[in-house]
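Q&A FORM
Asked by: J.P.
Topic: structure of Alpha-1,4 glucan phosphorylase

PROVIDED:
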Amino acid sequence: MSAADKVKPAASPASEDPSAIAGNISYHAQYSPHFSPLAFGPEQAFYATAESVRDHLLQRWNDTYLHFHKTDPKQTYYLSMEYLQGRALTNAVGNLAITGAYADALKKFGYELEAIAGQERDAALGNGGLGRLASCFLDSMATLNLPSWGYGLRYRYGLFKQRIAKEGQEEIAEDWLDVPFLYAHIILHNFFIWISIIAMLFNIFQKFSPWEIVRHDVVYPIRFFGHVEISPDGKRKWAGGEVLNALAYDVPIPGYKTKNAISLRLWDATATAEDFNLFQFNDGQYESAAQLHSRAQQICAVLYPGDATEEGKLLRLKQQYFLCSASLQDIIFRFKERKADRVSGKWSEFPSKVAVQMNDTHPTLAIPELMRLLMDVEGLGWDEAWAVTNKTVAYTNHTVLPEALEKWSQAVMRKLLPRHMEIIEEIDKRFREMVISTRKDMEGKIESMRVLDNNPEKPVVRMANLCVVAGHTVNGVAELHSNILKQELFADYVSIWPNKFQNKTNGITPRRWLRFCNPELSEIVTKWLKTDQWTSNLDLLTGLRKFADDEKLHAEWAAAKLASKKRLAKHVLDVTGVTIDPDSLFDIQIKRIHEYKRQLMNILGAVYRYKKLKEMSAADRQKVTPRTVMVGGKAFATYTNAKRIVKLVNDVGAVVNNDADVNKYLKVVFIPNYNVSVAEVLIPGSELSQHISTAGMEASGTSNMKFSLNGCVIIGTLDGANVEIREEVGQDNFFLFGAKADQVAGLRKDRENGLFKPDPRFEEAKQFIRSGAFGTYDYTPLLDSLEGNTGFGRGDYFLVGYDFPSYIDAQARVDEAYKDKKKWVKMSILNTAGSGKFSSDRTIDQYAKEIWGISACPVP
Ligand code: GFP
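REPLIED BY: S.T.
REPLY: Here is the structure written out as tokens.
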């Protein structure tokens, strides 16, 4: 008899009554094939609850699909290699407004909803800001009732799980689809133990997420390699090579307080039974018998496989094509499905029914693939296919870093996708001819604008150029970044297509990033605004401004912050063993580790602070604002300097935190395995957050928006969305420092010319590390990257040395401001009050109106 047996099972999913919900949870616990009916621990309770919530979602998802099918609106398809969904349970019940009902239902089994929600593993299909943005966008698309879907890949192991060992960061496969207790549980309770063991050995149990629905009816063939055949009438066709299948998994995405639920369709790669060579298998050649099956598994094994080798590069390109081809075949299928007469093809209508948004250059192959499908499969001529493609696809740029602008070897492209390479060559040729014939003045610029770089040493396809040439719209993700795109990176194209370029400042969903992750603060906001409508109309937060000096609000606000800080301190203790003081200033920097994001400046600042504390008298120390510096983020496995930075933060922490003289005034903690659910604990508990990239290099940033929304004050440069945040929250509520974007090139030149004079504080901090104060690890190469051109690195390309003194000064202003509690709480309130602009609802509304041309289509 398990706990689930206490409640009579009920298969009906749709009720919002706690007793009926409990019955439905009990039903899933007992009849769902993943579980033995004999136990109902917290993990089982999570899966049964999730499946019950999924029933609600499915109903909405089906209704929405049918409604879109009937009304046939123009629909957006968001193509992204990354989605960082995080946990789904709290978000789903919150958006469906059934949190209370589920909490009451779980109480009938003796469980708290929060504890059950905490069992969920993060869906980790992304790397950083780009993937998290995509997930915020899906939430807003559904909430705004927009006809839209996301497409992505169902990576089995996502990016990686980060473990901090003595040597620094270690990467472990992140098995987000695994059900940890499942095998052990089945073995313990199943009478047919031997069947379980065999099943386990052969991995017969599919790994799964309770939120996805496998769609065995949605399968498309995807070809790789092969050759181009030319028929007698001159038609070209791609043939031969190897063909795998793309199988759809749908993840329903509910909107907030709406009946609409849209889809995130994730593709998995499979091979068929015919691809399994039974003859070879029976001959003992097990590996070659299942060769295609194993190649299929490689495609969706991990996000961003290492690309140092040719095999790695090929695999990444395969992944990109796999996403694009499966998604476009599916989009065309749906275009035809919605109106039977479209089978005969009215292709000029396609762009009035379909918008495809390419999230960065990763899905650029959507362009030649759409051309191929239209020409080779649907029979259109070049001009017609080009007009359709151009009106359909648009491109978002997320970075100006040259190394992040993708370029693919022409040889690799030709080998893997011979027909696409032909199409790309034709696009390049026609673009060149167009410029020559219409813009004589641009002739000198043509080579750098072309899609192909035919440098004989390394001929490549420039994916960003292909996007700009073929897309109808190109957008940056914050005003500063979009201006840099127009004035620098894509300036030459602007003179040809002045109207192609737009800005869409990023946003975040206020549901996940305030309402659900910070219930204490949310309640206060609702109470003072006398409405919870801010959850879907974030501009209402400006209403808090008039209470910014109200003492009662101050008391409530400070109490909520303290509660979140305590929760965060508990998390830190649990994952690192370090005790931190909730009365100290919580100072956080969480993001991918990258030299341009300058975590190194943060830690050099902490080192400098530590050294000064050591030099102070005990009496002077007592006047210091106690601080806890927290850093979290993953370093890409092959990015050596980023991994050294992770190691340095940990080494500094190990010394500082154990130094009895100063550890009351400073702690330095590296938060391992930063992900969405960790961010949901860190951000509400933050008071100061660091967004300190070299100006002009961070396209936008979105964690800056999340912190500010949660009443955290930013210390930052005038970079990315910081510029707009500062405008909105007021310059007195933002600690600004550092060079401006338009100074950076000149400062780099000065540095090259030996004109840079380092501040003694910068030298002191580096020297302290070089002296071995933080252990024996050799930080020389890392520190040398901050030196002039003589050093190991890029001559301090990211200008840490130049900005360091103003950074330290800004930190001193922070210390002073924090001593005045009233002033600090007011700054905190004004940050929340000024965050309305940064709702992803605003961003998506702008995309819908200004790029996609789609309108709301609410399920009646
Ligand atoms: C990238 C950019 C960020 C930007 C996001 C979303 O993030 O500045 O905010 O995209 O547009 F760098 P990462 O994926 O690189 O973290």
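FOLLOW-UP: The chain has a mean pLDDT of 93.
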